[in-house]
Amino acid sequence: MPLTHNSYGSAADVAALTDLYTDATTKLYTSSTIPTLNQVENWINEISALINTALAGAGFIIPINQVDAVLAIKGFVIEAATDLAHAANSAGRYFTDTALERGITPRAAIRKSVLEWVETFADGLDALGASRSSTTGAGEIGFRSADNSGNATFPLFQREAFGDTFQDWDT
Fold this sequence. Notes:
By secondary structure, the protein is mainly α. It has helices spanning 11-17, 37-57, 67-88, 97-102, 106-128.
């Protein structure tokens, strides 16, 4: 499967980090390598889709186009695809005795890593200028200025109702 428009990285990027598993002459993935070129491209597409979904959930407009943000995301996607290439060859961090004993699957670990990555870097991506339609999170306050009919709302409880009156000494 070819890479989609919203994917980050390429099979050649993964091959550069895993040349032990590539074709001996071309140093690229082919239909006869383990993993195959098709598998590597599918992994890149799937991991990119996961990170795009998480970024969209954080309010970012997909695809991300800001140059530094794209490079950061690409680095994450290539690293994850590299880990899957190692796992396909019974090697790497997902093929340790501990991971196998605990039943940690590579894909579950990558899904967790994607969510942690987006949570960690969302503010930085925003500061870099990656397009964000909204922010989400604990820092926001829910507010409604009108009811369902479009009539203006007012606070149910106001300070004056409790006898709290204050003098503004700055005026």
